[in-house]
């Protein structure tokens, strides 16, 4: 039996800019970011953003952002739920790796966040990747060690994030729930 070749469109950042709504672009494939996050997702996002903002308030280089475009390549644009960026963003999008990204799982994004984005963030050498599971009230903290993500254990749910010598955040995940 012969199989026909599938011809699928391959989109770029230029196409992405023309779309309405919230999207991500992975290897030229568009992914709609809808429906909007549920209230618990938003509450967790605000709590984490606030905790990180307070923890690094004296840091001159690093800033906490809610979703912004993180353009990795012409055909890869992601919007993590939270980013910590150490350095100045001079474009309408982030074009260098942030220090930390957070993805808050939802049923429609969990597999992509745990696999596809995990691999992309690891390849981009982002220092910390947090996967938040609202259903389990759990945060998995991965730290880049020797170019591989390693799950960071914490018996007391307190995590220390070192972004540079002047930017350190200590967060207790119990405060998020």
Radius of gyration: 17 Å
Q: Tally the structural domains.
A: 1
Q: What is the highest CATH level, the class?
A: Alpha Beta
Query: What is the level-2 CATH architecture name?
Result: Alpha-Beta Complex
Strand pairing plus helix content: what structural class?
alpha+beta
H/I helix tally: 3
Main β sheet profile: 6 strands, mixed
Helical content (DSSP H or I, runs of 4+): 10-25%
What does this structure look like?
The chain has one domain (36-175): tt1808, chain A (Alpha-Beta Complex), CATH 3.90.1570.10. The N and C termini lie far apart (55 Å). The protein has helices at 13-16, 39-55, 110-123, and strands at 23-26, 29-32, 62-65, 70-73, 76-78, 82-86, 100-104, 128-133, 138-145, 148-151, 158-164, 167-172. The protein is globular, with a radius of gyration of 17 Å. The chain is an alpha+beta fold and 177 residues long. Helices cover 20% and strands 34% of the residues. The protein is built from 3 helices and 12 strands; from the N terminus they run αββαβββββαβββββ. The strands form 4 sheets. A 6-stranded mixed beta sheet has the order 3-6-7-8-9-10, with helices on both faces. Strands 1-2 form a two-stranded antiparallel ribbon.
């Amino acid at each position: 039996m012969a199989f026909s070749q599938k011809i699928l469109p391959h989109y770029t950042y230029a196409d992405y800019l023309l779309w309405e709504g919230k999207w991500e672009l992975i290897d030229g494939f568009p992914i709609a970011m809808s429906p909007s996050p549920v209230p618990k997702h938003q509450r967790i996002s605000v709590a984490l953003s606030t905790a990180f903002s307070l923890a690094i308030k004296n840091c001159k280089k690093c800033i906490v952002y809610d979703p912004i475009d993180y353009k990795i390549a012409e055909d890869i644009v992601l919007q993590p739920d939270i980013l910590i960026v150490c350095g100045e963003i001079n474009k309408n999008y982030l074009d260098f790796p942030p220090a930390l990204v957070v993805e808050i799982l939802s049923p429609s994004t969990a597999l992509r966040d745990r696999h596809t984005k995990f691999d992309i963030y690891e390849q981009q050498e982002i220092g910390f990747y947090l996967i938040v599971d609202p259903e389990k009230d759990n945060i998995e903290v991965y730290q880049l060690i020797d170019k591989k993500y390693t799950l960071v254990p914490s018996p007391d749910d307190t995590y220390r994030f070192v972004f540079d010598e002047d930017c350190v955040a200590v967060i207790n995940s119990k405060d998020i729930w």
